[in-house]
User: Fold this.
Amino acid sequence: MIGYTGRLATKYVVENCATDLSWAVAGRSPAKLTALLDEMKRFNPNRKQPGLLVADSNDLEALKSVTQSTKVVVSFAGPFAKLSYIEFY
Assistant:
């Protein structure tokens, strides 16, 4: 399941940010991310479709790949106390 806060943040971007914004959603399940984006199309069908980045929070190499392909990362993964800090070297 896509988390409540991540869904709200995605909806906010879809409804309020520039339609040509280059952005992506990330998570463990490509199928769930695709379903989320399909659901969000109804809020702003003219928006540029975001990218999908797949990584598990337990896979450091996948997380490095995701973060190296972006300029900004905003995480809504929970529980926050467990997943709020990952150190990359």
